[in-house]
Protein 1
Amino acid sequence: MSSIPIEHGLVLSAILFAIGLIGVLTRRNIVFVLMSLEIMLNASGLAFIVAASRWGHAEGQVMFLMILTLAAAEVAVGLGLIIQMFRQFKTIDINVLSEMKG
Amino acid sequence: MQEFIWLLPSFPLAGFLILVLTSGTLSRITVAVIGAGSIGLSFLVASIIAVQFLGSGDDYYIKEVWAWMSVGGFSPGFSFYLDGLSLVMMLIITGVGFLIHLYATGYMADDPSYSRFFSYMNLFIAAMLMLVLGDNLVLLYLGWEGVGLCSYLLIGFWYTKPENGYAARKAFVVTRVGDTSMAIGLFLLFAQLGTLNIQDMLHVAEVEWNIGSGLAIATTMLLLGGAVGKSAQLPLQTWLPDAMAGPTPISALIHAATMVTAGVYLIARTHVLFQLAPSVQLLVAWIGLITLLMAGFTALTQSDIKRILAFSTVSQIGYMFLGLGVGAWSAAIFHLMTHAFFKALLFLASGTVILSMHHEQSIFKMGGLRKALPVSFASFLIGSLALTAFPYTSGYFSKDEILLAALELDGPGIFLWAGGVLGAFFTGIYTFRLFFVVFFGETSGHPPEKEVGGWHMNGPLIVLMVLSIFGGFISIPVDAVFGHGESHEEHHVSALVHGFMVAVPLLGILVSYLCFHKKVFSIEKLMSYSISRRLHKFWHSGWGMDWLYDRVFVFPFLWLSRINHADLVDRFYGLIVEVSKSANKMVVKSQTGYLRWYAFIMALGLVALLLLGIIL
Amino acid sequence: MIVLFYIAAVVAVIATIAVILQTNIVHALLYMVVSLLAIAVIFYVLGAPFAAVLEAIVYAGAIMVLFLFVIMMLNLGQHTRNEEKSWLTPRGWIGPSILSGILLAQLLSVMADLDQDIIPKQVGVMEVSALLFGPYVLAVELASILLLAGLVAAYHLAKPK
């Protein structure tokens, strides 16, 4: 048993993605929301690696690198926003940011 | 120097721009120098160009400045066309215009909107020069509408009084009727002849159209519509008397000397077309005749000094139309020029009278002013003599030529002549009625202490006096323009007819003298008969034309707008607005402002898309 | 090696569930690090050592440390933990869980008919780098610009007024 069915890898990434989505939709603490987003990004990166490894290609890793860069930039901006938000509202409850209500 | 002809409208335009952009921040002296000086410069250039043009002996001169636009086969150039006709017009506009500007620097001295006044005046001169110098009908139309705009702005110059605004709107709307007709005429001409360049167009028309062809009649009728609107002839004459609401120099410049004669210029410029449609040309003569008689009767009954002069202007332009109608093109233009001199003189002098009387305009509140206002008295005397065609004044020569040309016309010529002579009789009466009432008789009310004046007001009056007396000896160089359309033979009429024509205006003056100075016939007694009272009322209202137009056009329009108050068409568009508003109200509810809600909707969308992918 | 994959997968799933259930934010962060390290192990098993190393260094190292800094800066204490507890009502979990469950079911049904096996083969730094600086050099440049933009934006946003 030296091989892994490709579904198993993809299922793992789908499960992680779903967990991340639950986190994004449930949590009110904005730091948790950001972390859940990281989980989702990471899950998609995992899917790329799994697919690439089926064919023995390096492209999947390149894509993972791109996602990594994206995540890094996103976290930098997102955390900056959180700091600014905390300064303004003295809370990290995402529900206070509802001023754009139509 | 002729290639600098584009400078002519540029000076006033530059003056307009300077005055408008500084918007009243300049001192009065500067404004006066810019306002009048720009016209003076234009006159100087015009004079030099005139001397060179006449010296060169050419028939015409064309200066193309730039191509205005080029759409398909339609490419009117921004070019100037100079020939005898536009030369005369150009000199009248800049010359008389300069004198009136100079006068206005004194007349308007106390007005708070000094700068605005001169900016409009300069714009007017620029547009008017464009009108007469443009070599195609599009450029002419640009100037045509430009002078209409300036006329509107200047009639409503004292806009704080609602009746002035009303008069301005009336002038604008009534002339717009004529302008629309003229625009349609231009479209028709372009569609049929393929060009709007005036000279090319006339050549093509001469070759392609037969005399009396339907197209010629249609286009000339449409052009005539524009001309009667601008020149206040029947049936669009009602705006001009109300236009006297503007400052008096405006009445002199726009509503006597230049703009209202634009219709005469238009017909003279396109006279070849009118020759191709003899029936329309005859109609021009009849319009002129009827207008001049109606305006003459009306002038007899007016009491406002400016309104009398306004109706007299309508009447004199009627003479010009009569001249055009009988084919006496150069006589009509000649009368246009002499009329510009003596009517500008009369209006400016009436301005001095009005200003000296502290803005009193009713002639019956004046009287015995000949001692108090010597310059105005002299001006009025000379202007009135010229207006009534007293022998050897300027008006005598021009009116004489028109009437003799009418007499020589076969068929209806004798009626046109008789009507014209009758009109001259009434001209004598109403002109000297004004003269005797204002300057002779009892001094009534508050006589003015002194005459308003100064060199810049009296100077133009003196120059215009000289021109009104001797203007008749000027020979205008329009033979080359009308050469092929006019008979050059001397008028052969018996001494009896000639004597009669001289005597009739003098008879009018005599009647006026007896009635209004010596009071041999009592006007009061005449007015005691009900028929004469009724006639007086009828004529006073300008033959009830305003009343008629109110009934025929204004009231039905108001009625229509009243029943369509809610505007049916607008309802439909209102419905669209209402629907989108309520749709918006519904959609807005989904916009809660909660980030998690948006994320939830996105996830829902993802699920839905995947579902679609699985099913399909 | 294959067993390692399944162990790591189970660890990753449990750790990730723990992340979203935690009320103490620092604990959640530590679980997140565990989850990321488990995924790094999976990367290694699947023959992507370069990605595994980057996952450990950049994700579990740099990004998580950044989170930690921010949490320290915000100085959230016991008060926040109580608040957090009051926010997490059982009812709040139902809707997102159902939605995510449906999504997961859809993804699984899509993958159901895949029948291919992975035979892990090492793809090292050499191959990845050859690709990165060969055909994907433009993507690398774009990524660098993105990072620069992120840097400038983060600096500007976090700057005290």
Protein 2
Amino acid sequence: MLDLRLYMLQRLSALVMAPLVLGHIAVMIYAIQGGLTTAEILGRTQGSLLWFLFYGLFVVAVSVHAAIGLRVIVHEWLGLGGMVLAALTWGICAPLLVLGLSAAFAVTLP
Amino acid sequence: MLEVIVQRGTTEASRTDRFDVPARDSQTVLDVVTWIQQAVDPTLSYRFSCRVGMCGSCAMMINGVPRWTCRTHVSRVVQNGRLEIAPLRNLPVIKDLVTDMDPFFDKWVAAEARHHPTRGRLEDSDPITANSPDRAEADLGIECINCGICYAACDTVAGNPEYLGPAALQRAWTLLNDSRDANRSGILAAVSGKGGCHNCHSMGSCAQYCPNALNPMRAIAGLKRETVKAALRRKRDA
């Protein structure tokens, strides 16, 4: 159930995710090691366009990548297709996008 | 004695029959099936022709694995004196061990895996350069005998009936690399649709079970690469 367009979207989103995942893990280790408090973390992220772009892009890539990957699994394992499959794909992508972007906004809005 | 379990009937109504078959030296699985039909049950249906691994018509599932039965020695595949013989997976069964190969070959046509000539029949033939890289790549896949073993082995075909399958895509790849084929863009479009090459998960069962040791997975990876390149070129030139 992958045509060329979906295939390229999935590969490109993986390409975007790879460095961002490493960056995210590095940030998590750094935040925990130094014992940063919530206030200290928010102090660095709030009002930062850079952190919004970092996690905003991450969220978009994850939403696209996960939706396409689950679409393939659902098609091959449950045999769903057509409009139902399209609805399911968007039904996975949209909530991930909304939840992820609201989290990114929550920590980066000044 | 060999204990042989044979699947009978059609996809809708299948059952298994048990036969005791005398074991012999250098016995192939096709010999076993032929012995059953000639000595015990003349109603057993199966398909074969050349008996030397050229025609690609005798493939069946042997103990759950797709194999060409004429070139498979019983001694290599028998498990505790027992053989389970069934029709090829992923295809409708006409009767007993005979599958309907129409879906398999329809997909070759759908993948544009047929020759599109660059010259007419009254013109001289277009010579090929045997040592060019494209020709070498095409040569890797041209020994396919259309036996359907890769199609039966492919889990992506099992999960996604629209998927064109390893054999059709490999033939499309050999034609894409053939200087005498005139429809490059048509082939790339045909393998880029919903059931196209991008559905392959690179599990490699096709390469694992191909009796001619071909590697359709490599061909499909090549198609993925070329379709992406062509799409990027289209974007750039638009």
